[in-house]
Write a structure and sequence with these properties.
- There is one protein chain.
- α1 (3-19) packs antiparallel against α2 (28-40).
- 36% of the residues lie in helices and 30% in strands.
- The chain has helices at residues 3-19, 28-40; strands spanning 48-55, 58-63, 68-73, 79-83.
- The longest helix is centred in the N-terminal third of the chain and has 17 residues, at 3-19.
- It has one domain (3-83).
- It is globular and about 30 Å long.
- β3 (68-73) and β4 form a beta hairpin.
- By secondary structure, the chain is an alpha+beta fold.
């Protein structure tokens, strides 16, 4: 696993703890983190404009360019970005 992937896995895992459980997935910090994760995975997006939380460390992100991605941490602790 690359160093960047490890860092962003940690960021993605820690975001709900820092943001607090009462904040929605459309929190600007979460949107910014998802934008960075998608870009680091080499996927086109531009900017994440909305995100729906599916579970812990599991989001559906909608991008400015109309793309949608499923962003989650798999059982091995790796960040996965799947185009929807």
């Amino acid at each position: 696993m690359s160093a960047r992937t490890k860092i962003w896995a940690l960021v993605l895992a820690a975001t709900p703890l820092v943001a607090g459980p009462s904040l929605a997935a459309d929190d600007p910090a979460v949107l910014k983190d998802l934008t960075a994760v998608i870009a680091l995975q080499g996927q086109p997006c531009g900017q994440v404009v909305t995100a729906a939380k599916q579970g812990e460390n599991d989001y559906i992100a909608s991008c400015q360019d109309g793309s949608r991605y499923h962003v989650f941490v798999n059982a091995q602790g790796r960040v996965v970005v799947q185009k929807q």
